Amino acid sequence: QVQLVESGGGLVKPGGSLTLSCAASGFIFRDYDMSWVRQVPGRGLQCISDISRGSNNVLYDDSVRGRFTISRDFAKNSLYLQLSGLTDEDTGVYYCARHGSERALDLWGQGTTVTVSS
Amino acid sequence: EEVMRQSPATLSVLPGERATLSCRASQSVSSNLAWFQLKRGQAPTLLIYNASTRATETSLRFSGGGSGTDFTLTITTLQSEDSAVYYCQQYDYWPYTFGQGTKLEIK
Lengths: 118, 107
Fold this sequence. Notes:
The structure holds 2 protein chains of 2 kinds. Chain A is 0% helix and 53% strand. By secondary structure, chain A is an all-beta fold.
């Protein structure tokens, strides 16, 4: 079954850290660029990070650059997002998504929820 | 950063009717525009990419149009299952930005 399954979300205090994981299955993971997209209450959907199929090109939105790190493990068919320096503005649902051949995000996971609160 | 504006914010229509959703970019994104359907508790679904190409499992009732800065998503013969929030997204250049969404309600 072609799918993405996120995990690792939870409740974290301001300034804290968290690592999100996304397990890919049913397709050749190394053939696709991948993204992390979040849905923040009141702010809609936001593409926050992107990584090329070879991991040689990574992109970050200004709102997370320097605090979040994207990576991927081909042996584990997994995508990761390390979050640090968290603020309440980082609260939301985090989705991993796959870029199809035409660049559009053609496969999404169900999301994992991150709540930043003291 | 490319700003994407969607209208209307909310659309309420009867079953069997047609709905037209709009998306406008602050500058040209060529045809690098996608439409997504988001239902509560479910993974977002790609409906349309390259402004007018249906994704593999997208119903023929969904059609996309436009290029440059102005785009539309049209849904014909509306059904209760079409109730969702619809987002447009440009992927012409980073950061790939979304509109704020149109909530479609089927009366």
